[in-house]
Design goal:
- This protein is an alpha/beta fold.
- 37% of the residues lie in helices and 24% in strands.
- The chain has 2 domains: 1-79 and 169-252, 3-Layer(aba) Sandwich (Rossmann fold), CATH 3.40.50.300; 83-166, Rossmann fold (3-Layer(aba) Sandwich).
- It has a 6-stranded mixed beta sheet with strand order 6-7-8-3-9-10, with helices on both faces. A 4-stranded antiparallel beta sheet has the order 2-1-4-5, with helices on one face.
- β4 and β5 form a beta hairpin.
């Protein structure tokens, strides 16, 4: 059984159908890429699954439970997290403090601080913070102000924040956008490590086809909100319909 399953998922904005009857399963422990031209409905689909948008119709099941329309904080508690297209960090806080806040919310379910204790006294929070920062190789920079990090490290910090809830499934929206070739290679290595070492299931929205073909086990192609292909990378590479929709007929 798929970890995540959508059935006939639809999202309409007035007369515009942004997601058009998408039925797709994401297998546990895999990296699944979602690609398509701008306006294909990729981010809207993710937002419907993660609770940022309510679907117009259709269903979303996670680990066998119907989570359709569940608000974002509840989908996080179910085991779904998301890193955004631009780094969402607290710039004047340290690297460690950024992840501590996310870890505290995940550990305690809300921000009801006990003011008789320091944040550092929460052993579970500290343990989770250190593990997440080590997983993205930022532990040595834990006392650095977040705004001082290079761009690529800010994106890695944002991934650590998303990991602080210890999700089973992580959505990554354009994780290599704006990165240098070296930063891109480091991020690709990180994605592979997250799958192998943490056993994460990852859903990746990405325009860099070299990244997609390196890390994806399966690729879902959206065009005008609907799925036109859903297959292994080797099959997608030679799919004429995908080439026409995504690259105007050019080979991928």
């Amino acid at each position: 059984m798929s970890l995540l399953q959508t059935t006939d998922l639809v999202k309409q904005f007035g007369g515009l159908t942004a997601v058009d009857g998408v039925s797709v399963g994401i297998d546990r422990g895999t990296v699944q890429a979602i690609i398509g031209p701008n306006g294909a409905g990729k981010t809207t689909f993710i937002n419907c699954v993660s609770g940022l948008l309510d679907p117009t119709s259709g269903t979303v099941e996670f680990d066998g439970e119907d989570i359709t329309g569940m608000p974002p904080h509840e989908t996080v508690q179910q085991g779904i997290s998301k890193s955004f297209q631009t780094a969402s960090i607290f710039p004047t806080m340290t690297v460690e403090e950024n992840v501590q806040i996310a870890a505290f919310g995940a550990e305690h379910g809300s921000f009801r601080f006990n003011f008789l204790k320091k944040r550092s006294d929460y052993n579970a929070v500290q343990d989770r913070t250190e593990r997440m920062l080590r997983s993205v190789e930022l532990w040595e920079d834990r006392n650095v102000q977040a705004q001082s990090l290079p761009y690529g490290d800010k994106r890695r910090l944002e991934i650590a924040i998303a990991l602080a809830s210890e999700p089973e499934l992580l959505f990554m929206d354009e994780p290599t956008a704006g990165m240098s070739p070296d930063e891109t290679r480091q991020t690709v290595d990180l994605i592979e490590e997250l799958r192998e070492e943490l056993g994460l299931t990852i859903v990746l929205v990405e325009h860099d086809m070299e990244v997609i073909f390196r890390v994806a086990d399966k690729i879902t192609v959206l065009h005008r909100g609907a799925i036109i292909a859903n297959a292994a990378p080797e099959q997608i590479r030679g799919d004429e319909q995908v080439q026409e929709a995504y690259l105007g007929g050019a080979e991928i």
